Amino acid sequence: MKKASAKANANIALIKYWGKRDENLILPQNGSISMTASGLTAHTTVDFSKNYGEDSLVLSGKRMGPGCKDYDDYVGRFLSVVRKEAGTRLKAKISSRNNFPTSAGLASSAAGFAALAAAVNEALGMKLNKKELSVLARRGSGSAARSVFGGFVEWKKGVKKDGSDSYARQIFPPEHWPEFWMLVCLSSRKEKKVKSRAGMQQTVATSPFYGCWLDSVSDDLKKVKRGILEKNFSLVGKTAEKNCLKMHALMMSTRPALIYWNAVTLEIINSVWRWREEGLECYFTVDAGPQVKIICLEDRIAELERKCRKIKGLKGLFITKPGEEPEIINRHLF
Ligand code: PMV
Predict the structure, then answer these.
(1) Residue nearest (by alpha carbon) to ligand 1 atom 9
(2) Residue from 196, 202, 265, 286 whose mutation best tests the ligand 1 pocket (most atoms within 8 A of CB)
(3) For residues 140 and 41, what is the distance between their CA atoms, to the nearest angstrom?
(4) pLDDT per residue over 116-129, tens digit each?
(5) Which superfamily does 180-320 belong to?
(6) Which architecture characterizes domain 4-177 according to CATH?
(7) pLDDT beneath 50: ranges in the chain
C-alpha cells in the first residue's frame, strides 16, 4: 500500500459512443474510435489507508464525499469496484486536478478515471495489464477506457455479458500521424445540465432513430480506421463530422430533447463550413457539451487559430494533437 499519482490525457472521439447495453458494467451499444488529446490532462493522487474513516475526494479544489450525488454516482461506485477487485476494505483519499474545465463536454471524466485507474493500480499493487486497466477505467466512465492508451484508440463494444471483452486498444501510436491536430474551441465554461450518463440513457429509451444509429456505426468505424491508416485526412474528417451530427440528431430526438449546443457552437460550425468552401480544409466534432473541436492538419493550425480568435463569444482555445498514454508520476497532490 502506498500513495500513488498518475497523469492521463482526455480523448476526443472521432466515432462516438452514445448508449449503453449495461448501465452497471458500463458496456456500450456501439464501438468507438478516439484520439488521445495531448495536454488536456488530469493529475490524480490516491492513498488507501486504515487511517481514513471514509472515502474523500477533492476535485479541482471542490471537496466531495459519500452522500454527495456527483461523488456517489461516479467515484463512489468506482471505488466499490476497485475494493472488490483488489480485495481490500481500506478507504481512499483522492485528489484530482484538470488543466481544463471539468464537466463541460471536454472528456474530463475520461482523463480523470484513466488517471485514477492508473494511480489505484499502482497504489494497491494490483499489477493490471493495459487491457485490464482499460476495463477498470471503463467502470468509472465509458470513454475513460480509451484514455488508457495514447495515439488513436478503438474501444470494441464486446459481446460478452460480463464485459470482459469490452476494452480499448491502441490502433495507431501518436508517431503514426503527428500532423493530425485539433483546435478545441471553448464556447462556455459552465458545467453541462445533463451528464452523458443520464443523456445517453434517455436517448436509448426514447429516440426513434436509435436503431438507425446502430446500423450505421460499423461503416463509420471502418472508414475512420482506413482513413487513419492511409492518412487520408478528408476521409477521417468527413466521417467524423457526419458521425458527430448523427449523434446530435439522436440527442435532439430524445425526449425530453437534449440540445448541448449554444449560439457560439453554431457560429463555429458555420465558420468551419465557410472556411472549407474557401479552401481551408477542416472539420468539426462536438461531444455532449457546447465545445467545438476543429480537426485540421498541423500546417493549417496558425491560420485557423487566427480565424477562431475573431469569433465573438469564444471563451478559450486549446490546441491538441495525438497524445501519450497515462503515466505514473512522483508529484503528489497531498
Ligand atoms: O464516457 P462518458 O459517459 O463521458 O460518455 C462520453 C460520450 C461522448 O463524449 C459524447 C462520446 C465519446 O465517445 O466520447
Answers:
(1) 287
(2) 196
(3) 17
(4) 999 999 999 999 99
(5) GHMP kinase, C-terminal domain (3.30.70.890)
(6) 2-Layer Sandwich (3.30)
(7) none
